[in-house]
């Protein structure tokens, strides 16, 4: 099996130790507004849950910078976090960032997938940031959203953020993405290589309507988009039920 075939079969496989090491720098280049998105995600959760209240937050795909944990913990000192990621190198990197921020006692790491978590106790909120477009096909996307919904309290908020729209369908945005890399010092050949890797290695929902449909099918209601940057979007939705 080639590396590309391995990554297609297991999306976590492409986040090996070499990619984990460069992730923090590369993610901030790939997403203009990386820090703003994470800060606003924390603000949206706090505004929904109520400032100053204790909460248990599920962070799915937590590996890498742990920025969602660091931002939210800084805003809300009574929140605790369960960090889940199937890539051991990426989760190790995230927990190192958590420890550096003095948040180790407030964060529980779970190597694996959402389905590895017990069905109870249920969480007050969840985040799924930068994950969905790495999962091939709608069924895998629905599966992870359903697994998250099953572990949330009724009415609990979910922050969903990631790329949406088929990359090739938006040539101007794709070209601007390439210019973003060039702005950071990449050569023309390096830009083409990066864009080619993006086109082959991800499967984002093809529209905002597709995102909304996936959320509805998984049991989430009233998604509200609060951030956008080229192909990237971020939404807050609530688990249905009472």
Automatic annotation (TrEMBL):
Tell me which residues make up the Methyltransferase domain. 57-155
What keywords does the record list, in alphabetical order?
Methyltransferase, Transferase
* BP terms from Gene Ontology: methylation
Matching Pfam families: Methyltransf_25 (PF13649)
Which GO molecular function annotation, any one, does this entry have?
methyltransferase activity
Region (Disordered) residue ranges read 1-20
Methyltransferase among keywords: yes
**CDD domains according to UniProt:** AdoMet_MTases
The molecule here is called SAM-dependent methyltransferase
Species, as recorded? Cupriavidus basilensis
């Amino acid at each position: 099996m080639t590396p590309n075939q391995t990554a297609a079969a297991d999306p976590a496989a492409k986040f090996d130790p070499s990619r984990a090491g460069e992730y923090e720098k590369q993610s901030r280049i790939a997403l203009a507004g990386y820090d703003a998105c994470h800060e606003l995600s924390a603000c949206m959760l706090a505004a929904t849950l109520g400032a100053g209240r204790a909460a248990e937050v599920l962070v799915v795909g937590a590996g890498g910078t742990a920025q969602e944990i660091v931002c939210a913990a800084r805003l809300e000192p009574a929140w605790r976090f369960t960090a889940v990621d199937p890539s051991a190198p990426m989760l190790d990197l995230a927990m190192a960032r958590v420890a550096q921020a003095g948040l180790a006692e407030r964060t529980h790491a779970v190597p694996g997938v959402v389905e590895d978590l017990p069905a109870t106790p249920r969480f007050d909120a969840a985040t799924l940031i930068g994950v969905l477009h790495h999962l091939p096909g709608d069924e895998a996307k629905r599966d992870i959203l359903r697994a998250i919904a099953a572990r949330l309290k009724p009415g609990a908020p979910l922050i969903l953020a990631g790329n949406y729209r088929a990359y090739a369908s938006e040539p101007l945005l794709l070209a601007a993405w390439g210019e973003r890399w060039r702005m950071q010092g990449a050569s023309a050949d390096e830009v083409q290589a990066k864009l080619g890797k993006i086109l082959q290695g991800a499967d984002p929902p093809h529209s905002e309507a597709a995102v909304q449909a996936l959320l509805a099918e998984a049991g989430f209601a009233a998604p509200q988009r609060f951030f956008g940057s080229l192909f990237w979007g971020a939404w807050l939705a609530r688990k249905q039920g009472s």
